[in-house]
Amino acid sequence: MSAPTSISDSSFQAPSSDVVAKHNAVVLAVAMALGGSSPAIVVSLGGLVGQALASNRELATLPVSLLNLGLALGTIPAALLMRKAGRRIGYIIGAGIGLAGGCLAAFGIASFSFTLFCLGTLIIGSYGSFNQSYRFAATDSASESFKPRAISWVMTGGLVAGVIGPQTVIWTRDAVQAAPFAGAFLAQATLALLSMIAISFLRPAPVSPTSTKAAGRPLIEIVRQPRFIVAAVTGLVSYSLMTFIMTAAPLAMIDCGHSIGAAALGIQWHILAMFGPSFFTGRLIARFGKGKVTATGLVLIALSALIGLSGIGIAHFWTALILLGVGWNFGFIGATALVTDCYRPEERAKVQAANDFLIFGSVAIASFSSGKLLSAGGWESVNWLVFPPVLIALVLLAWQQRTKAIAPA
After folding, report:
1. Does residue 7 belong to any structural domain of this protein?
2. pLDDT tens-digit readout, 107-137
3. Among 83, 250, 277, 345, which residue's beta carbon has the most beta carbons within 10 A?
4. Among residues 185, 297, 165, 279, which one has the least CA distance to residue 239?
5. Closest CA to 338 of 245, 231, 254, 261
6. Domain presence at residue 6
7. Span 217-237, average pLDDT
8. Domains held by the chain: number
9. In angstroms, how far is CA 252 from the centroid of its own chain?
10. Domain range holding 268?
11. What is the mean pLDDT of the chain?
């Protein structure tokens, strides 16, 4: 999407329908299907490669943690780039970054360099910061009624990614015989290249002349709004806890005697559960409201931790990961929809970047702490720490809903 530097009143026409929004949502869904497979590849193999290359077992999950750190660090630069160059150019550059990261990670494996492999996953993470903003890009030209559905449409691309990513691991992990798992990261780089082609079909969204001239409110004023705080906290809790458990799960499964294939399939079912509900999450939000759907997601995340505490069989791990995925979908899409209520058109770039920086900064912290906690306290400790954040987020949501209910008409 090109970002016009100026536009006259006569050249602007308000969209009479969501034609552009629907086209872009489909394009972004395809790009998500391709680019969204990158985290699945890193999560499935990052800890295993880390175990093979790192001198200290506690560093095994560092590559996955750096994926999330790269995502957090990339959010603001990605937003600034897209504000200056436009969505389409920004996303093409982002895909190029993903391609470079995959090649570097593969080279790190081939050269037995833990440092280079970690740098590769960090760069792949920064590619993810572009992909994560697809959900906001889908709302740029959407009407208020179509926004939740536009977000859901984009997130359905992750359903395909949930198949592509783990299957890429299974089919290509031994493609380079001299360097096990390097083939999967070369395949990840190829998928990033394909997403670059897909995103070239993105159309510019109609832009109001007012939004191109006004700077909007100061960011500090926007983020201090109670409704932004609730939206950011619920998104932060949903995504951080999902990452916290997902990062530890593959290693926990292997520690419990399960195979690498079982761990990869567990991640596949998890990712399918993350994005599969997107076919109807937007409609659920339209019917029941953003707050109720978000709260349901948080409850499902807590339930996944309860399942994780109940046993260590494959069924326990897979069931917990599936519930975790569905909970993330409801919680994160609901929180994203809540964020779109907090800004004006001219403010969206900085507010979206601030929201994602908060979320993915917390995700990086959760990922870093997950591996150490798993090593120190085991799988049970990972699950017990889910409940306090969920409770806090649910209390904030309940407070917001109560405030709305008693507010004067």
Report:
1. no
2. 999 999 999 999 999 999 999 999 988 988 8
3. 250
4. 297
5. 231
6. no
7. 91
8. 1
9. 22
10. 18-406
11. 85
Q: Is residue 10 part of a domain?
A: no
Cβ neighbourhood burial of 378 (10 Å; 0-12, 13-18, 19+) = middle
Q: Position of tokens 């949903």?
A: 238
Q: How far is CA 205 from CA 140, 337, 370, in A?
A: 6, 19, 40
DSSP 8-state secondary structure symbol assigned to residue 16: S
* Cα–Cα distance for residue pair 363/386, rounded to 1 Å: 13
Is this structure's pTM higher than 0.85? no
Whether the pLDDT of residue 407 is over 50: the answer is: no
284, two tokens: 């659920």
pLDDT, tens digit, for every residue of 143-192? 877 888 888 888 888 788 878 887 888 888 888 888 888 999 999 999 99
- 237 Cβ contact list (under 8 Å, min separation 6): 298, 331, 389, 390, 392, 393
The DSSP secondary-structure symbol of 343 reads -
Return all residues near 336 (Cβ < 8 A) that are at least 6 apart: 135, 136, 151, 235
What's the rounded mean pLDDT across residues 330-341?
90
Token pair, residue 43, equals: 């999560």
Please name which of 381, 224, 249, 372 lies closest in space to residue 316, comparing C-alpha atoms. 249
**CA neighbours closer than 13 Å in the CB half-sphere of residue 75:** 24
Residue 41 in any domain: the answer is yes
Other CB atoms within 10 Å distance of the CB of residue 104 = 21
- What confidence tens digit (pLDDT) does each residue in 189-199 have? 999 999 999 99
- Dihedral over Cα of 199, 203, 208, 209: its sign: positive
More confident residue, 227 or 17: 227
Sign of the C-alpha dihedral, residues 370, 371, 375, 380?
positive
- As a whole number of Å, the end-to-end CA separation of the chain is 39
- CATH code of the domain covering residue 51: 1.20.1250.20
Give percent of the chain above pLDDT 70.
Answer: 92
Instruction: Report the amino acid identity of residue 248.
Output: A
Phi, psi torsion values for 121, nearest 5 degrees? -70, -30
- Cβ–Cβ under 8 Å, residues 189 and 98: yes
Residue of 267, 368, 249, 362 lying closest to 41 (CA atoms): 267
Residues near 376 by beta carbon (within 8 Å), at least 6 away in sequence: none
